[in-house]
Amino acid sequence: MSTEQSTAPRTLAEDLRARDDEALSGLLRARPDLLSPVPNDLTQLATRAGTRASVVRALERLDRFTLQTAEAMAVGPDGCDLGVLGALMPDVEAPAVEAAVERLRERALVWGSDERLRLVRTARDMLAPSTGAPSPTGLGPTVAEATSGTSPGRMQELLADAGLPATHDPVSAVASLTALFSDAERMDVLLASAPRGTTEVLGKLTWGPPYGETPDAGRHVRAADAVTPVQWLLARGLLLPSGPGNVVLPREAGLYLRGGRAHRHHEPVPPSVEPVERDPQAVDAAAAGQAFTAVRTVEELLKRWDTGGPAVLRAGGLSVRDLKRTAAALDLSEQTAAFWLEVAFGAGLLASDGDVDEEWAPTPAYDEWRQHPTERRWEQLAAAWLTATRVPGLVGTKDSKGRVLAALGPDLDRSLAAEVRRRLLALLAGLPEGGAAGRDQLLARLRWDRPLRDGADGLREQIMDWTLLEAELLGVTGRGALSSHGRALLSGGHPAPLLAPLLPQPLDHVLLQADLTAVAPGPLVTHLAETLAVAADVESKGGATVFRFTPESVRRALDAGRSASDLHAFLAEHSRTPVPQPLTYLIDDVARKHGRLRVGAASAYLRCDDDALLAELLADRRSSGLGLRRLAPTVLAAQAPPDVLLERLRSMGCAPAAESADGDVLIARADAHRTPPRSAPVPVPEGPPVPDAVLLGAAVKAIRAGDRASTATRRPAVPAPADGGLPRSAAAETLAAMQAAVMVGETVWIGYVNADGAASQRVIAPVRVEGGFVTAYDHTTDEVRTFALHRVTGVAELADEPA
Amino acid sequence: MNDGPLIVQSDKTLLLEVEHPKADECRRAIAPFAELERAPEHIHTYRVTPLGLWNARAAGHDAEQVVDALVTFSRYPVPHALLVDVAETMSRYGRLQLLKHPVHGLVLTSSDRPVLEEVLRSRKIIPLVGARVDPDTVVVHPSERGQIKQFLLKLGWPAEDHAGYVDGEAHPIELDETGWALRPYQRQAVEGFWHGGSGVVVLPCGAGKTLVGAGAMATAKATTLILVTNTVSARQWKHELVRRTSLTEDEVGEYSGTRKEIRPVTIATYQVMTTKRKGVYPHLELFDSRDWGLIIYDEVHLLPAPVFKFTADLQARRRLGLTATLVREDGRETDVFSLIGPKRFDAPWKEIESQGYIAPADCVEVRVNLTDHERLTYATAEPEEKYRYCSTTATKQHVCEAIVRMHTGEQTLVIGQYIDQLDELGDHLGAPVIKGDTSNPQREKLFEAFRQGEISVLVVSKVANFSIDLPEAAVAIQVSGTFGSRQEEAQRLGRVLRPKADGRAARFYSVVARDTVDQDFAAHRQRFLAEQGYAYRIVDADELLASD
């Protein structure tokens, strides 16, 4: 053990131990999965940070350049310094590489000093090219790996043909060949003698994939027999067999051909997003207009389902037919209708009522929501949308089993969605105010920020497109640029005060025209809108609303208890212009027929078994304005409309009930249909949430404390058995000890029971723990083999470390 | 939120507040690309359609101007999607152009190769084109010039036709402007048409469409084929042309059921052109009988389908369409656009009325209460008989006669659908009746007498719906119509819109039986006029008669 090693950390755990609390917090913030549950000490933290699942998560969250740096380290020698790493990325400025290494270090993917950088072994295994899996760099396995199955005799042949002196054993032969391939000058000389066409063959393999197919793969070609360029390369080990009919270009040769580059292109700088300037005021105005539409659309949607909506499918969700119907009713495309449904659902305004025949219905939260002013309502919708993981864009597409995904149905959650949404809006927020950006630029930037596998990348592209569309629909963005209220939403502030002044103020008047239309040149105050919606049909929506009066609509208003004079007064009061003659005529004409249907001039009747009470009412002075008239001993006719009559009778202390034609008691308005209290669906983001500062601080403190406790005693985790019997330890401890041994590169003593039940003791150096098996160098038999973990009776540290 | 006069709706209609101070400015800005759909008193409705946008492109406007107009005048933020859609739609026009190639003749070229590839892949287009000259150009069979324009429009890539026109056989025609002159809007219409090459001029009834035609002929100075709806209208055209231009009786021929003259200027009826014998159209050769320099289509909204087919083969000749409305009950507006041409000039009724070129009109719907007996008969009538019965009831006749008496001394037309009803009315009123079997000389004699004021009441059937010129008709009474035809209503109103010598307002009565299908049809018919700003008053027959 040299003095240098006493200062440099020997393990990731030691490296972590040397970091300050700030750095540990940083690590836990970047990799929140390490926190659940909170590890006991730093050794456990390091072990967990080295597990495959956690490393995969960490790698997936790297930006493209940092990932490239990690990949370069994986193809470079283990424990290289910054200089060597820099040589693998020759086009990149040193500070950029250092910064990337620092980012990797923060995430505990790299440890050790700058002179001896160590990539966590699991990450190395994943990123380095192996015989099985090609590497993202497009480089092949090393000479040593590629020749592992080659006979010593063949190795010597390769050496001879490459013009190298013979060696005593295969290990030195590999070293000699590796040295040749890594030496650019000697390679130049060697390749200068190559026959024509060799460069082309190598050129095909240089940037990967490094595998080629050739019938010569299995043959032991000698230099003297080589005819074709492939044979020439095979004879000298520049191509090595990798399977039947397949050859591979060894990593060292590949790097030489690439001039030492680990990647063809390095992208140390994120692709820029050029702002397309828009007038910020116009952006806010457009977004506010859309925000207003959003709130109104959701309200209209839920109002349609006010007294019970469509049935819930057995598999959950809304049937295609109901979606179509809803879309048609709102005059929207099905995709857009699905979006609004999901927005309402996500905000907890809509849910299944949970009855035997399940139906969709507004929740009690909807009633509460309706009480708020428009801007607050928007805020609620937008906030729910921002964090939702449900992806409305998927509605109508098919899942892997060929089932069509239903709106409001299951399987719409995509954990990627919330992140993409936030990142995308953050990108827009990073532009100057009123800045929009091209879709392709945004996509390129997202891709750089977080490279994904092909499938996930495609999904992200879709989600991004949908998000751009949805943000525009909701009015978070306007003309492609983030609005000021959108900015506030994103930063967790309160957008409502910013939005409020931009929204159109409700009007209390309409314009009546002779073609029997009424135009409301803006949103209407609620009572006006409601009355007009009854008395006229909506013809066109948008900034304004166009209503058309038809005989049917007027009749509808009369049915709803309004009299002709009511309507005349109502129109005269709310029209800015004189009420046109044809409209007046229309109302009178319809009312005339309406009256005829009810026979006679009475607008209401009073029925009572007690004729004394009726007589009393007739005599009462307060009822004089009602125009009561006795039709029969127990029946009074009234000139006042029923609502007035009811009202007046109530004020006179009576308790009248309205009656329907066949004498049933009429209930004024059916109770609105509501679900029981329901909570909004919880987003399912991938992995645990990012911990807050308090939790982080506590966690770091706890880990430190646990660490001090465990390092102070310095006892082996598993005591070595005293009696020389089989070591015994619990299964969990066995696993942890094995993983620790892999991390540290320790040799351990295990007890093992083979398939026949025979027990033995072995001394092994574990290399990899995976899928219930340990791959280890068995010192007892001097070979690498795998042990089933469940057959390992226990692990113990060796009393003395082997030399 | 600015304070503009315009509100853009999500269904692509534009609402224009007429009383707004900027309304006129806004109207001028949006008129090139938006069709005026309704023009009642306070809020006018315009609609933005692909055809309208392409019309604007054809007139040399670009998307920038359209978007700018919308954004400038809109009261509320314009939905971004709509602006994108406008730009996208407009950019489609003119990507493909029909040109005359010095070597290959008629060619279709594209400034955007993928578009050309896309349309050439269409099965409808393949038979119409020939060899590929270069990557951006393909030869089009000259005979398919109309067809290819129709199909390209259907594919959403309307082609701009720059292939030019043949001059046709020259013939000297001059306007003879003694005692009259082309009105400014007529002159603009002629210029607009001539500048565009081919296209449609939209003018209200009574605004002098014939003179626009004459003006176009005087500009073309070439042999002209004029297609009109019927013989009466053909005579009228001839009469006007002889009076207003240097043409003489002998130079103008009539090609109708009775006469088959082919002269330098020939007026043919749609009916004779579309007569089919043994599966062929024997009169089709008229199109080829001379080297016509100009073809005029009167009442283009009535153009029968076979004429479209012939027109497709006439794309090398200048074509002028004249109409009061582009609304076709059969929805073939796109064929008018691609075969006759884009709209070149448009003036709303009210505008021309305010300039004093057409008379203001007072439209009154008179509701008649049927007697109990009539109501019972109506209720028990067969469904297909119901309309006929309720629109010809005796009560209606009485009311109609009463109205005629109210307007004694004024030139009055009574218009109806059912012959026996008209005959009966004619009897009671002592007025002559013009119907389908009235001979043409007799018709002209009666019209002339009416014009001269020798007779003051004329009862006409639907033969008089179109293109008869009755300058002094001050009152029209409609007793029955072709069900709910909006177009017929407009034409009939047009009968009284000729400016009166004394500047009086015209009266247009529609007598309607209450609570019957007559009333429903009337409502439908009136919508067009109400939308054009002609508000109907509705009065009860009893009231109307009592007041006088």
From TrEMBL, chain A:
Pfam families: Helicase_C_3, WYL. Residues 128-150 are annotated as: Disordered. Residues 510-632 form the Helicase XPB/Ssl2 N-terminal domain. Residues 733-795 form the WYL domain. This is DNA-binding protein.
UniProtKB/TrEMBL annotation, chain B:
Keywords: ATP-binding, Helicase, Hydrolase, Isomerase, Nucleotide-binding. Residues 398-548 form the Helicase C-terminal domain. Its EC number is 5.6.2.4. The keyword Isomerase applies. It is an enzyme of class 5 (isomerase). Pfam families: ERCC3_RAD25_C, Helicase_C_3, ResIII. It catalyses: ATP + H2O = ADP + phosphate + H(+); Couples ATP hydrolysis with the unwinding of duplex DNA by translocating in the 3'-5' direction. One of its GO terms (molecular function) is ATP binding. Residues 190-344 form the Helicase ATP-binding domain. The keyword Ribonucleoprotein does not apply. Belongs to the helicase family. RAD25/XPB subfamily. This is DNA 3'-5' helicase. It comes from Wenjunlia tyrosinilytica. The lineage of its organism: Bacteria, Bacillati, Actinomycetota, Actinomycetes, Kitasatosporales.
